[in-house]
Amino acid sequence: MEEQKKRTRRANGESAIYFGKDERWHARVPMGYKDDGTPYRRHLTRPTRKELVDEVRRLEKQRDEGSARQPGKPWTVEKWLLHWIENIAKPVVSENTYDGYEVAVRVHLVPGVGKHRIDRLEPEHLESLYRRMQKAGSKAGTAHQAHRTARTALGEAVRRGHASKNAAALAKPPRMEEDETEVEPYSVEEVQRLLLEVNKRRNSARWMLALALGLRQGETLGLRWEDVDLDNEYLKLRRNRLRPKYAHGCSESAPCGRKAGYCPDRVQTRRETKNTKSRAGRRAVPLPGPLVAMLRSHQDEQERERKIAGDLWSKSDYVFTKPLGGPLSPNTDYHDWKRLLEDAAVREGRLHDARHTAGTVLMLLGVPDRVIDQIMGWEPGGAARMRARYLHVPDHLLKEVARKIGAAIWGAPGTTAVDKNQDNGS
Predict the structure, then answer these.
(1) What is the per-residue pLDDT across 152-181, written as a single tens digit (0 to 9) for each?
(2) Could you tell me if residue 283 is left (phi over 0), alpha (psi between -120 and 50 degrees) or otherwise beta?
(3) Alpha carbons 362 and 386: distance in angstroms, whole number
(4) Alpha carbon 36 to chain centroid distance?
(5) Distance between CA atoms of 209 and 220, rounded to whole angstroms?
(6) Measured between alpha carbons, how far is 29 from 45 in angstroms, rounded to an integer?
(7) Collapsing DSSP states into helix, strand and coil, what is residue 21?
C-alpha cells in the first residue's frame, strides 16, 4: 500500500496517477492552458488502477487530437454561434456572406437548436430543425443556407476543441428540388427584342454587358472608367458593387418611425464596393465592336449629364450612375430590369438569367471552354460544374443532333425506323 500511495516526480506534460486517502485511484491529466495562461488539468478518479489508466489514455488521445473539451463552462450552440459570427466570421468574410450567416443564425439556428450544449448536439437535432423549417414554409434553399452556416460554425468549434464532432457535417439537409434551380436562358430573338428596347433607355450599355458578356450585377455596377479600355476593346473586372446598408440617423428622442433605409437622416454603414477576391473574378473581358460603340456613346451622354447638372452632380468615376451621378443602387437596377422585360414584351426572368443567356450564346458560337471560363469568371477547379449549370442546349440544337443521328444510322435525313418498316412492307 505504501508503494501505491507514493508519488514520484514526473516530466512536464505527463499525467500524474496516485492512490488517494479515499481508497480510490486518482489522476491529474495536463490538458493545456486556460485563457489567462495558467495550466489546466483534468482530475479523474476510478476505483481500480486499470480503469483509471484506460480513461487517462482515452483523454490524452483526445487532447493530442485536439478534440477534448476545453476548460470552463461548456458552450451552448447559441453562445457559440453568436461568438463565432461576430468575433470569428465577421472580420474575415465579405459583407454579403456575413449577412447570409447572420440571418441563418438569428432567424433559424438559435431559435431552433440554440439551447443544446455544443458538445451534445446531434445530427438528428439539425435534421429535425430542417423539417420544421420546411413545414413552416421555408424553401429547401433556406434550409440549405442554415445547414451550410451550421457546418462552417461547428467546424470551427471542433478545430478549437469545443466539440468532438461536427453534427452539421453528419446531418443530411433536405433535397433541393430541380425546379428551384432550373433556368431557361433567353433566345436570340428575345435578346434582340431586348436590344431594341435597351437602345431607348439611359445606361443602355449596362444591359448589353449582362446579355452579351454575362457580367454579374455587382461587377457591372462596380465598373469605373479606369477599368474600360475602349481603344483596345476590353475591360478589366476587379471590384463588385455592394448592396447599401443603412442605420438610422435620426435621434432616439425623435425617431422617424420608418425602416433604416427610408430614414430621412439615414447613414450608410457599408462601403460601396469591395475588391474581387478570386483570381478568376479579376479578369479581362473582350468587348464586341457594337458594345464598344455603345460605351463611347454612353460616355458622351454621361458627360452631357454632368455639365447640365453642374454643382448637383455627385462626382464619381463609375461607368453607370444615377441621373445626378453617384453609383447605381442594386435595388434600383433590379427594378429597371423588370421594367425592361415588360416593355420589351419578354417573359419574366431573373436578372441573373441574362448571365445564363450569355454563357449559352458563347457555347453556341463554339468559343473554347477555357475562354468561356475566363469571360464568365469561373475558377478552374469548379469550371466544369459551372458550365454544366450555366450552359444550356436549346431545343433546336437537340433536334439538329437527332436529325444527324438519324441520317448516320438510317441513312436518310428525317427517316425513322417506322418509315423504313413501312417501305419494306412490314
Answers:
(1) 999 999 988 788 899 999 999 888 764 444
(2) beta
(3) 14
(4) 37
(5) 7
(6) 11
(7) coil
Burial state string for 75-99 with b = 16 or more CB within 10 A and e = fewer than 16: bbbbebbbbbbeebbeeeeeeeebe
Which amino acid is it at 133?
A: M
Q: Which residue has cell 437548436?
A: 113
List the grid coordinates of 139: 424553401
Cell of 403: 436529325
**Long-range residue pairs from 179-186, CB within 8 A, at least 24 positions apart, any chain:** 180/139, 180/140, 180/141, 181/389, 183/350, 183/353, 183/356, 183/392, 184/353, 184/392, 185/353, 185/356, 185/357, 185/359, 185/360, 185/392, 186/211, 186/346, 186/349, 186/353, 186/354, 186/357
Q: Residues 6 or more apart from 245 whose CB is under 8 A from it?
A: 95, 268, 269, 270
Contact of 212 with 358, CB cutoff 8 Å: yes
- pLDDT by residue (tens digit) across 185-197? 888 788 888 888 9
Global pTM? 0.61
Question: CB–CB of 355/216 below 8 Å?
Answer: yes
> Crossing angle for the helix pair 353-364 and 188-198, nearest 10 degrees?
120
